[in-house]
Amino acid sequence: MSLITTLDVCLKNAFKKNSLTKALFSTCVCRFQNVDSFEATHSEEGKNVTENLSAPVDTPIMTKRTLQFPVTHTFPRLAWLESMKNLEGEKLGMLDLHPDVFATYPRLDILHKNIHWQKFYRHIDYSFEPSRAEMKGGGRKPWPQKGLGKARHGSCRSPLWIQGAKAHGPRGPTNYFYMLPRAVRGMGLRVALSCKYAQNDLVIVDNLDLPTSDPQFLSELADVRFWGYSVLFVDDTDIMPRNITAAVNKLRGFSLMPAYGLNVFSMLKHETLVITLAALERIEGKLLEEMHSTLMETKFVNQLRPEDFRSGPKEDTIMYKKFTKPIQTL
């Protein structure tokens, strides 16, 4: 028995003699019946909408991402997850980005330290100037010590003479190798990623699969999505898909890089950074582990010598040593 039927039975005798009350009661009953019919109609429509939403979707929609270290001091940053299967770009969902990696304060001094280190840590100066003892000639005294009224000289290869040696000249090869602290290198990567995200130059895709290996398709894709003239594609591994490898090989300004090779210089050199979801997970996890690590780093001491940079092979001097026993028994 419904609610309206129960009310009708209970209040029928109470309002028999009062016609006005009976009219008001009948009006309320009609309104309750209309409300029941409206709710029934919309409940059926809601069931249809729920069935449509529960239907399987062709593309995976990602609306939440579990962060490795919980965010308590601020809120996660949001970014679109896109696809590279067509020119326009299909939005596959929203991603939560950790603010400690993608919302770091832009430290230009940290970026400068990383760029300077990347330019000089593998630089070797091969400049070499021979001393007066290493130059040919100059063994004879130019003129006598006395009697001619000239300044006294003992060799024409003196640094005072033209075509003479150079005093305190470069004695290459000289290496400029040094290591930045691990914290400075990690912070440089976080600052560079934050700058790319703030300037809307960070694009996150599900993978690097292209429908064709034609470089014209990749060039038009970058033009339609306003990626600029130089794009850096980063994937989780160094084994890239065949189509994008063939396309990037014929385009100038487009580069492929694995996640373990990502550096500050390459990110600042290219206008847009396109990174896959797998590479994002790996890079963000590594940077957060380094940021929250408590391991003490030992100071690096450069023990390289100029002989380590000679082009020729090392001389084998084992046969010049004096042996007291046969070589086979050594």
Largest sheet: 6 strands, mixed
Kindly provide the radius of gyration, computed on alpha-carbon positions and rounded to a whole number of angstroms: 39 Å
Which structural class fits the helix and strand makeup? Answer: alpha/beta
Strand percent estimate: 5-15%
Major beta sheet, strand line-up = 2-1-5-8-6-7
- Percent in helix: 25-40%
Q: Which stretches are poorly predicted, pLDDT < 50 over at least 5 residues?
A: 14-42, 52-57
On the 0 to 100 scale, the average pLDDT is 81
Q: What global shape is seen?
A: elongated
Gap between N and C termini, in Å? 106 Å
Number of helices: 9
Could you characterize the architecture of this molecule?
This protein is 35% helix and 10% strand. The protein has helices spanning 3-11, 19-53, 99-102, 108-120, 182-198, 215-224, 242-248, 264-269, 277-291; strands spanning 77-82, 93-97, 124-125, 174-175, 202-205, 231-235, 254-258, 272-276. The chain has a six-stranded mixed β-sheet. Helix 4 crosses helix 5 and helix 6 crosses helix 7. The chain is elongated, with a radius of gyration of 39 Å. It starts with a helix and ends in a 39-residue tail after the last helix. The relative contact order is 0.11.
